[in-house]
Design goal:
The structure holds 2 protein chains of 2 kinds. Chain A is mainly alpha-helical. Chain A folds into 2 domains: about 1-115, Rna Polymerase Sigma Factor, Chain: A (Orthogonal Bundle); about 120-180, no CATH class. Chain A has 10 helices and no strands. The longest helix of chain A is centred in the last third of the chain and has 27 residues, at about 155-180. By secondary structure, chain B is of the alpha+beta class. Among the domains of chain B are: about 160-305 and about 600-610; about 330-445, Fusion Protein Consisting Of Minor Coat Protein, Glycine Rich Linker, Tola, And A His Tag, Chain: A, Domain 2, CATH 3.30.1150; about 450-570, no CATH class; about 620-710, Immunoglobulin-like. In chain B, about 35% of the residues lie in helices and about 30% in strands. Chain B has 14 helices and 39 strands. Classes of the chains: A mainly alpha, B alpha+beta. The interface between A and B is large, with 50 and 36 residues.
């Protein structure tokens, strides 16, 4: 399956299938991480992060994949791993070319979202489901109330507000602990 | 907060391109000018993206699993082929060597060498293969480990055989999970299980077909103590409304609950208390610790289970026969009119004459239309008992309705109906009759700001029986003798006088006594309500009507409603059905008055319906030193509530940690030594530095059970 086919899968919203295809590249990324002193679990995390960043970039309209998936994932993985290791020197940063800078920014950006993600993981499954339905399935409160068996759309709305508020509180405390 | 919500909504619409061009421009300038709004916008983007990560990760995880299983299939496939090929090769070599046993040594040697090398490669591949296997075994054993930690429950020594005897046996129930199931357990617990609620934790697949459900109920103190259960959540004391151990199995595999399809559990209770929540239990150091099941939405779902929807807001109103129109509004109007017409046609206004009443009369009526369309729970209030009697009579004549429907389910719909008519003096019996159509009859009484209390009058409790009765009677000098107290106790047993709990302030419970209407109607009680609403007993006026200053000082509004005459659980049934239920030998309706805590659990294993106790009493550290303990287990049972505290044994000292002082408790000690059971209880009041001794007596398991059963309330 060529890169083009995978791109089509992404465009058709068959994200999981596309990921499955991309997992073929995993052994090579694993080698990269292992060679830089990580273990298998690290490699898994790094690859996962790279896929997330790829997916996010594909969804923004002005992004164009200039190289193959492998090259792109490889460079993202490299930055993710160095970022985890915190071993990027200033000198190295200055030597980055324009494309690398873009990738690096994406990695830094993603880290912010990571924190928010952890906040969501802590709010309980029903809250998560509720927010997913609202923000990603773009369901109306009426439909959400039906699916999740709330008495009325008003309760669903109220709950959504509470859940979001809870997530934000957790996020803020996390942010503080990270910054300090 | 309101603007905050609006902002979030605006940002949401902007991100989804739902705004018009103009609004978009407005939004963008706002982003540039309003700093606070900008940061909110940024934050929201971070959130939406964070939320998306959760989703993406799920997809990635799926892909990864698919990828690895594919990989393993390939590897195992290849290794099987390799092994197959090697076996064939080996047998081939073996056969040839057998066929030619007489050939010269040289050739045989080479063949042997050959076979050794092939053997070696074979071993390599099998090693590879076994790696796969151990991997899968590992995950298996992990499941097992966590499973045993939740069930392991051993304190009464090491002899497991006798331990089985002491433990309560679970009820084994076979259910078919392809349908929704409702189970009523022996002691009244009701489980509502949706179809497809279970998954196999190994395959993550939804389980179909028959499964075995093991349920053990722990309501009685004796059961709780024998199972060595206690009610503590991370050092905080709990009061329990019942504990359960639930286990689901199919072909020996322990099942788990699927996300999003929790089991609804109804715990029966005689004395409903607020703020009951569900806890999950974990055993550690021989004591169980309960952790609150966290799911913010749960409380709201309890509200959902109230199957009563006011007439004004119910999706499909119950309809009077003949009012079956398409449109809900039309039906509503038609039904209201029909009820009013029916009332004015059948109400005998002549009743009003000769009662010494004149002028405008108002009779307030409330009734409910149940799920079968029957008119039930009629209650009427009027200036004169004769009037309310007449209203009762006419309301009882109402035909069967088509029941109201909310979200596809038939529901109970309360309906309020004021009857207004005029008696213009005694001489000229000019009467105008009218039942008024109040716009939204039940808006006045919203369940959220008032508790429905089934009673005629409320009395708060004070210390002492005599004082209590005098308080109830509103008479400081009321003669209370032993005979009267006996009678009083008797009425309590018959539930004609009932103790209820009120929440005076948040978390502070107060008890109150209620004289129920049937008490006045029953012959031989000598209680009578006079026309001015005062109560007499044997000619002695014992109660004068409440005035404003005497109304109990609770923060919540109390509302008087009639007692549901026929109710099985929360569901109202007809009188016939109720009688039948009573006759059923297995039915617990008679022994437990029918009210339930309705909660939902998303976990199996140990489940507890509890609430935290936030006493304002003095807290003390409670430690016991006992010489002849020999590793006995000692539990503290509270007399005032359903609560059991465990103790931690170290160096001859039993530590109950921090408890409230001045509580009446029973200390129950059970010891096992040389395969014999020893037992003692001590009644005491908690205070600092207790000096207590136990006199351990040998006891058989059967007797122990009996003794513990005496502790049951």
């Amino acid at each position: 399956m060529s890169d083009q086919d995978i791109l089509v899968l992404f465009k058709n919203g068959q994200r999981d299938k596309a990921f499955k295809k991309l997992y073929r590249l995993y052994p090579r990324i694993e080698k990269l991480v292992l060679s830089k002193g990580g273990n298998k679990a690290d490699a898994n995390d790094v690859f996962q992060e790279a896929l997330i960043i790829l997916n996010r970039n594909l969804e923004t309209s002005n992004f164009k994949l200039t190289s193959s998936f492998y090259t792109y994932l490889y460079s993202v993985s490299r930055f993710v791993w160095s970022d985890i290791q915190k071993n990027l020197s200033k000198q190295q940063l200055q030597q980055l070319n324009a494309q690398d800078v873009e990738v690096f920014q994406a990695v830094i950006e993603e880290k912010k979202y990571q924190l928010a993600e952890h906040a969501f993981l802590e709010i309980g499954k029903r809250c998560q489901q509720l927010l997913q339905l609202f923000y990603h399935k773009a369901m109306s409160f009426h439909d959400i109330a039906n699916v999740m068996q709330f008495k009325s759309s008003k309760i669903a709305k109220n709950q959504k507000y509470k859940c979001l508020q809870k997530a934000k509180d957790i996020y803020k405390t996390k942010l503080k602990s990270v910054q300090s | 907060m309101e603007t905050y919500n609006q902002h979030i909504e605006l940002i949401h619409s902007y991100l989804n391109n739902l705004l018009s061009k103009e609004e978009q421009l407005n939004f963008e300038t706002k982003l540039k000018t309003n700093l606070e709004f900008n940061s909110l916008y940024e934050e929201h983007i971070v959130f939406v993206n964070g939320l998306e990560r959760v989703k993406i990760k799920e997809d990635i995880f799926k892909a990864q699993r698919a990828y690895t299983t594919q990989k393993w299939i390939k590897i195992s496939g290849i290794s099987i082929i390799v092994i197959g090929a090697l076996v064939m090769l080996y047998t081939l070599v073996f056969n040839t060597s057998e066929i030619e046993p007489t050939s010269n040594n040289d050739s045989l040697n080479t063949i042997l060498v050959d076979s050794v090398t092939t053997k070696k490669t074979e071993r390599d591949t099998t090693i590879d293969h076994s790696e796969v296997k151990t991997d899968s075994i590992k995950t298996d054993s992990e499941v097992e480990v966590s499973y045993t930690t939740t069930t392991a429950n051993k304190k009464f020594g090491s002899v497991s055989e006798t331990q089985v005897n002491i433990q309560k046996k679970p009820q084994n129930i076979k259910i078919d999970v392809t349908n929704d199931t409702i189970i009523k357990c022996k002691e009244g617990t009701i489980l509502k299980i949706k179809k497809g609620a279970f998954i196999n934790p190994n395959t993550q697949q939804i389980v179909t077909g028959k499964i075995n459900l093991n349920v053990t109920e722990y309501y009685k103190l004796s059961d709780i103590l024998l199972a060595n259960l206690s009610t503590v959540s991370h050092g905080k004391q709990l009061e329990t409304g019942g504990m359960l151990y639930i286990e689901a199995k199919q072909n020996g595999t322990a099942l788990e609950l699927k996300d999003g399809t929790p089991i609804e559990i109804q715990f029966p209770t005689t004395n409903k208390k607020p703020e009951m929540q569900l806890f999950s239990g974990q055993w550690s150091n021989d004591n169980i610790n309960w952790t609150l099941q966290e799911d913010v939405i749960d409380d709201l779902e309890i509200l959902e289970d109230i199957v009563e929807v006011p007439f004004g807001i119910v999706e499909q109103v119950p309809t009077f026969p003949g009012c079956e129109a398409e449109d809900n509004e039309t039906r509503k109007k038609c039904t209201k009119n029909a009820i009013s017409k029916f009332m004015s046609r059948n109400f005998n206004t002549d009743i009003g004459i000769g009662l010494g009443l004149s002028g405008k009369q108002r009779i307030n009526c409330i009734f409910k239309i149940d799920q079968d369309g029957n008119v039930v729970f009629i209650q009427t209030r009027a200036a004169h008992p004769r009037l309310s009697e007449e209203a009762d009579r006419v309301l009882n004549l109402l035909p069967q309705f088509n029941p109201g429907v909310q979200r596809g389910k038939t529901v109970i719909v309360p309906y309020a109906l004021p009857i207004l008519f005029e008696i213009e003096g005694e001489q000229n019996n000019v009467r105008q009759f009218q039942t008024d159509l109040v716009a939204e009859p039940l808006d006045v009484i919203q369940p959220s700001d008032s508790i429905a209390v089934e009673m005629d009058s409320i009395y708060t409790e004070r210390r002492g029986m005599v004082e209590l009765i005098r308080e109830v009677m509103h008479d400081k000098d009321f003669p209370v003798d032993s005979l009267f107290i006996q009678e009083w106790e008797n009425y309590k047993k018959q539930r004609l006088i009932r103790q209820i709990t009120l929440e005076a302030k948040p978390n502070v419970m107060e008890w109150a006594y209620v004289l129920r209407k049937p008490l006045f109607e029953m012959q031989g009680t000598k209680f009578k309500i006079l026309e001015d609403d005062s109560i007499t007993r044997g000619g002695h006026i014992v109660r004068v009507p409440w005035d404003a200053t005497k109304v109990p000082t609770t923060t919540r509004l109390l509302r008087l409603v009639p007692k549901q005459k026929f109710s099985a659980g929360r569901v109202a049934v007809t009188a016939d059905k109720f009688d039948k239920l009573l006759e059923e030998p297995n039915s617990d309706i008679s022994s437990r008055d029918v009210s339930y805590y309705v909660l939902k659990t998303s976990n199996l294993g140990w489940i507890n319906c509890d609430r935290f106790i936030n006493g304002q009493t003095k807290r003390i550290k409670y430690k016991l030193k006992i010489k002849n303990a020999d590793g006995a287990s000692i539990s503290m049972v509270f007399k005032s509530m359903n609560s059991v505290l465990p103790s931690w044994y170290t160096n001859g000292v039993y530590d109950f940690q921090t408890i409230s002082a001045g509580e009446d408790v029973v200390l129950v000690a059970i010891k096992r030594k040389d395969d014999k059971l020893y037992y003692d209880t001590v009644d005491t009041t908690t205070k600092a530095n207790p000096q207590l001794d136990f006199d351990f007596k040998e006891i058989s398991i059967g007797d122990l059970k009996q003794v513990l059963e005496t502790l049951n309330r």
